From TrEMBL:
InterPro entries documented for this protein: UDP_GlcNAc_Epimerase_2_dom, WecB-like
Enzyme class, spelled out: isomerase
The name this protein goes by in its record: UDP-N-acetylglucosamine 2-epimerase (non-hydrolyzing)
Organism this protein belongs to: Geosporobacter subterraneus DSM 17957
Record carries keyword ATP-binding: no
Domain of life: Bacteria
Keyword Isomerase: yes
Length: 357
């Protein structure tokens, strides 16, 4: 969302105010610092051990107060977080128009990704303008009865942000990452954290990764391990004593983006990485049974590897050893845009209000 905020701030016809819930305090603060953004309103709702219901309740109450004070013409929400849904719902309760950035993504399984899928669906019912990253996202919205004239295909703003922070000469704070021989090693970047993968699916993922390293002498793995104790225990139990596996602390956005740019192959259960990595020419294997980003699969930048050990190993091992198959994925056209989505969104908002809607 940072490029959108900047584009709004740079436009003379728009007065923009930035409100954050701080649903995830640490993750938010490093991005605000990176993009030199200062919120006008910070609800600071994060609490230890918070539940989805608590996030929803605190976010809704805090946003209601902000909306009453500011009385905006429109509220922009992004993506699929609980903050996204509560932002749209709070706006609806105050009869304020909603613009949904990154609209129209669907997995068609309400529990995967959870709770993100239903956050998107419910936000879609409350939005007045829908900024869809791809044509496929637009078709999803049309199928749900959204009128075509309030949908704009923009590309994804995550690409705008990514291209602003990746640098060829980037130096990591973690010296272990600087010492990796990216030119001569096949560096595999792994991320795994989703609720639905906790338990046996995650055991399968980590065991497959162990076998990939054992069967490919030129492979090194970097795994920023999620702070969830269950993820930590499994990761260190299965991968902790392997010489070519680097278990590191979670990375902030800028170093992570630059690590993606240096990696050879990415295995992830994340959503956004499925869009970001292809923009850098990096093939992605998705460690989930479905994805709300099918355009990447159709474009050939992403493959579904699922959560079964044999399948993950087979697909990854093939890509690591078949240069033709790897090249086809690495050179496929990223379907998520050209880095100019933010400007299209601002222009669409102006057009919407100038038309008297």
């Amino acid at each position: 969302m940072a490029p959108v905020v900047r584009a709004l701030q740079d436009h003379a016809e728009i007065e923009s105010l930035l409100c954050v819930t701080a649903q995830h305090r640490e993750m938010l603060d490093q991005v605000l610092e990176l993009f030199s953004l200062k919120p006008d309103f910070d609800l600071n709702i994060m609490q230890p051990g918070q539940t989805l219901s608590e996030i929803t309740a605190r976010g809704l109450r805090g946003l209601e107060d902000v909306i009453k004070e500011v009385q905006p013409h429109m509220i922009l929400v992004h993506g699929d977080t609980t903050t996204t849904f509560t932002g749209a719902l709070a706006a609806f309760y105050q009869q304020v128009k909603v613009g949904h950035v990154e609209a129209g993504l669907r997995s068609d399984n309400m529990y995967s990704p959870y709770p993100e899928e239903m956050n998107r669906v419910l936000t879609g019912r409350l939005a007045h303008l829908h900024f869809a990253p791809t044509e496929g996202n637009r078709k999803n919205l049309l199928a749900e009865g959204i009128k075509d004239d309030v949908i704009l295909v923009t590309g994804n703003t995550v690409i705008d942000a990514l291209l602003q922070v990746v640098k060829k000469d980037y130096v990591f704070e973690d010296e272990r990452l600087n010492q990796i021989d990216y030119a001569n090693k096949k560096v595999v970047l792994l991320t795994a954290h989703r609720r639905e993968n906790l338990g046996q699916p995650m055991v399968n993922i980590f065991t497959a990764m162990k076998e990939i390293v054992e069967n490919n002498e030129d492979v090194e793995v970097v795994f920023p391990v999620h702070l969830n104790p269950k993820v930590q225990e499994l990761a260190h139990g299965i991968l902790g004593n392997m010489e070519r596996v680097h278990l590191i602390k979670p990375l902030e956005y800028e170093p992570f983006a630059n690590l993606m740019a240096k990696a050879y192959l990415i295995l992830t259960d994340s959503g956004g990485i499925q869009e970001e990595a292809p923009a850098l020419g990096k093939p992605v294997l998705v460690l989930r049974t479905e994805t709300e980003r099918p355009e990447a699969v159709q474009a050939g930048t992403v493959k579904m590897a699922g959560v079964e050990k044999e399948t993950i190993f087979s697909i990854a091992h093939s890509l690591l050893n078949d240069t033709k198959a790897y090249g086809e994925m690495a050179n496929a056209v990223n379907p998520y845009g050209d880095g100019k989505a933010s400007f299209r969104i601002v222009e669409a908002i102006l057009k919407y209000f100038k038309a008297g809607q």
